[in-house]
Amino acid sequence: MGKRIAIVGAGAIGGYCGAWMTAKGEDVTLIDPWPEHVETMRRDGLSVRGMTDAETRTVPVKALHITDVQSLMKEPPIDIAFVSVKSYDTEWATHLIRPYLAPDGFVVSLQNCINEERIAAIVGWGRVMGCIVSLLATELHAAGKVMRTVPMGGEKHTVFRVGEPHGRISPRVQEVARLMSLVDSSKTTTNLWGERWSKLVVNSMRNGLSACTGLRGNDRDLREDTRWVSIRLGSQCVRVGQALGFQLERMLGMEPETLARAGEGNKDALAEIVDILVEGARKRSDDQRPSMAQDIAKGRRTETDFINGFVAERGRDIGVAAPLHDAINEVVKKVERRSLDARPENVAGL
After folding, report:
1. Residue 215 contacts by C-beta under 8 Å, 6 or more apart in sequence?
2. Domains of the chain by start residue, with CATH
């Protein structure tokens, strides 16, 4: 028998991955708190759209309201539970699925930010795994409809990196990597924490900046003023990660040390990073916008405290200043509270 899979949070990432796993024959149950989204999936299936016709289809899926999760008690237990909610919802989502796990079942953090410790506090470290999502820009733009706004990674870029907290390659890591390969390219990693921080670098450069300026991804990276803020955010995040002892990975073609030096004013490094960011913008759809910018547009809470706020906090813990992260975090919160409108002028002078 195949593994029973649950995905708690069937939004942009969870829904997209769950749809493709289901389409490839896996036993997946999608769980989501948005009633209209669940009812649409039940009635019409989950529509996923990419940048090519081959990436676009509607998939009949099993979908549950969070109020219906107790019905899982009548079925075989869950072998693999993916938690794919916002970081601030991690604890309740883990508590929700925990009673339905098989004795050897485990939870995979399929999220932005670094949430494995929060999950481990509920289910124990032996039942936690991480899956980093690298360059998979998706948006739940309507109930039952997810669109992808960047090309498939395939052989050019490994999208999913799956790892154990202890760093060894286990059979269950290989199984999760297989599942993720049904969605896009994947690999196992012995460097979960380095991969996590490397993804945090990218998120810290993009999410808060787009959220507080209102700029979509391409405009943010093509404008000289906001691109310079982005590079300095990345530089500070790299330096904090290095001081914490993480082995940082190459990020979207950027070497960590080159990015750090670019943000510190090295002209050669800066020219290299600018070229990479501009080239990346040319490959994305103009519809692409980071998740926190989506949150602002939809009037939802952002993950700013778990991205830029987290970088600044960890930096303070070890004596490595990341003042620009503090500044962006505060501006995002003002936009979130609607005491500021989202506009590029919000980062002038930073």
Report:
1. 209, 223, 226, 293, 344
2. 4-190 (3.40.50.720), 195-347 (1.10.1040.10)
Q: What 3-state class would DSSP assign to 165?
A: coil
Q: From CA 55, how far away is CA 58, in angstroms rounded? A: 10
Among 85, 67, 96, 90, which residue's Cα sits nearest to residue 14? 85
Cα distances from 127 to residues 119, 148, 172, in angstroms, run 9, 30, 11
Q: Are 179 and 81 in contact (CB under 8 A)?
A: no
Please answer whether residues 292 and 303 qualify as being in contact, where contact means their C-beta atoms are separated by less than 8 angstroms. yes
Q: 101-109 and 78-83: which strand pairing?
A: parallel
Q: Which of 69, 59, 71, 78 is nearest to 3 (CA)?
A: 78
In 10 A of CB 51, how many CB atoms? 17
**Contact between residue 310 and residue 244 where contact means Cβ atoms under 8 Å apart:** no
Q: Among residues 203, 183, 199, 201, which one has the least CA distance to residue 191?
A: 199
69, two tokens: 């999760």
Rg of the chain, C-alpha, whole Å: 19
Over 80: is that where the pLDDT of 167 sits?
Answer: yes
Tell me the pLDDT band of 348, cut-offs 50, 70 and 90.
very high
Run of H or E including 11 = none
- Residue 184 near residue 159, CB atoms below 8 Å: yes
Give 132's contacts (C-beta < 8 A, 6+ positions apart).
Answer: 160, 161, 162, 163, 189, 192, 195, 196, 198, 199
The CA distance from 229 to 231, in Å, is: 6
Residues 6 or more apart whose Cβ sits within 8 Å of residue 278: 221, 222
Q: What SS3 state is found at 283? A: helix
| Alpha-carbon 100 to chain mean position | 25
Please give the pLDDT value at position 1.
63
* Amino acid of residue 330: E
pTM value surpassing 0.90: yes
Q: Is the pLDDT of residue 217 over 80?
A: yes
- Which backbone phi and psi does 256 adopt, to 5 degrees? -55, -45
Helix axes 323-336 and 308-318, enclosed angle (nearest 10): 150
Alpha carbon distance 238, 262 (integer Å): 11
